[in-house]
Amino acid sequence: MFEAFIVLCALTTGATPASDGPGNACRSALLPGHRASSEAACMAFLGGPLPDWTRQPAIRPSIPFCSDQIPRPLSVSEVAPGVFVHEGKVEEVSPDNAGDIANLGFVIGDTSVAVIDAGSSRQIAEVLYAAIRTVTEKPISHLVLTHMHPDHVMGAAVFREAGATIVGAATLPRALADRAETYNENTRRDMGDRAFLGTTIVMPDRLVEGGMQIDLGRRRLVLQTWPTAHTTNDLTVLDADTGMLFAGDLLFDRHTPSLDGSLIGWLAVLDDMKTLDARRVVPGHGRPLLPFPDALEPEKRYLDTLARDTRAAIAAGSPLSAATKGIAAGERENWRLFDLYNPRNATTAYTELEWE
């Protein structure tokens, strides 16, 4: 099969589209929606306008072309019939990992495919798209975004171009709009110009408030939004056929949880999640398949400890600067990236709980 591509270069480096390679800020970007069995048929699809992001001021694009040299697909595992998951690295975004730090997935029905989360960049989403195409030629009808954080949403444009409706919580657009400039700047800085090329934030097409179901053809996905917890816009996806739950970052495994919403709310949501008719769960970070609801317990223990220690520091009159050094310190050996995330969590928890 042939796909359409365009070589992109960052104008700030002086590189040109003819010099695509690992040593400069150029890369070949995949353009979904032009897939065909021959180069001629693929090229025939390229007559229409290119996506708006190819005209960004900081990008120099080549003339589009078609090739059967598809990029190496993102690695995925079939964790249940028709349910595929990619395991992201438990790391911070860097040029070495190109932003591949979140668990991503897709579910295949009789008539179409739904993708759950889009990764940190266009580049990650392109190779997730390539992975889907190694498994099925069915149309990609939906992309579900579990929450606002860059490692889950920044590749969304790829799936819109592939024909998907982007779905998110009703509170997601405002959260993305408020943070778009910061997310773009920080992600570009952390992964480098080359990996970031072509990345642009897009808003969801369809909003969920409470619950919604998606029919993929004899395959039903149950979407549910939650009160403020990890963020203000958390959403879970349950495959009713297999009992597989995509929890997004409401659940962390091995990776220190990241509090960007409400500690009290998160603890309450974890209790409420136990009532879901799920048998196994895919966390937003960590091992890609865990038993449910048992997998919630380590995170609940950490958050309980965070709350208990924070309340004790407040009751003792400890100032925030001193309190963050000791809050939840007993959990350090249980989590990766602890010294990066726990001080932030302690600060957020202290700010919330001092007003109880």
TrEMBL record:
Superkingdom, taxonomy of origin: Bacteria
Which Gene3D superfamilies is this protein grouped with? Ribonuclease Z/Hydroxyacylglutathione hydrolase-like (3.60.15.10)
Occurrences of domain Metallo-beta-lactamase (ranges): 102-285
Family, per the entry? Belongs to the metallo-beta-lactamase superfamily. Class-B beta-lactamase family.
Its name, as the record gives it, is: Quinoprotein relay system zinc metallohydrolase 2
The taxonomy runs: Bacteria, Pseudomonadati, Pseudomonadota, Alphaproteobacteria, Hyphomicrobiales
